[in-house]
Model the fold of this input.
Amino acid sequence: MKKFLVPVDFSDLSLVAIEAAKKMASLFGGYVSFIHSHIPITELDEPYALGVSTNVYQNFEEIQASLESRLRELSRQYLDEEVRGDVKVVAGNPAQSVIYEAENADMIVMSTHGRTGFKRFLLGSVAEKILRMAPVPVLIVEPESNLGNLDKILVTTDFSENSEFAFPLALEIAQKSSSELTLLHVLNFEQIEGESMDRSLLDIRKQRIDLLGKEFFKDLEDRFHTDVILYDGSANKAICDYVEEHDFRLLVMSTAGRTGINYMMMGSTTANVVRLTNTAVLSIRPPKNQ
Done:
């Protein structure tokens, strides 16, 4: 994992993503690249362009050169030389541009909202599309996120093969940062009936998660932990409450769960967790054939 791609819109939130990308690049011995996407006036819907003088229509080469200059200056200002990558300016849809450029990257690092001001309502259309369609892991950070020294990492599982796609990268980060890692499974009260069933199902899930841990995370030895919790309501809130209670630095999740329906599951769990928490969330999308 070498190239960490940061979508930059020159807002303060871009700086938050840059700091997180620096942390990850230093951890992996990689570098940070910037991308900025702008929509030319000529591509706006006709009602918005009516009455606009042709003199105002953008000179693409001048705008590209100016934006590239700003990106280079930002790179020089905030990135040490050893982690400083390339910069790129593209004209077009921001989400599509980032997704296309990510084909040549290893991770996208971004905030959920920028100039639009969206925070928790809809994530912001750009962030939502990137989470849903990115071909590489996406690290989402907020101003309140604190990766620190990555000393505590949480990984969630529903025991599906899809959720296991998040395990290798979570393990690698834990190994490189010498951090504690907890594997969590949440169990809804609606899945159980009566006290005896409660204990029986809990014991079964605890046995399963212990076996899963031994299979994927045994190299962490005593830095690895498991937990199974009961919750009443939404899994999203249960996960967020657990993260806050135990002060995790990073939450790692797959964007598809037991159903295998990528975005429907992501929309109900991973994206909603991103909406609710200020902790950094690393979202990993299973291959399309899964």
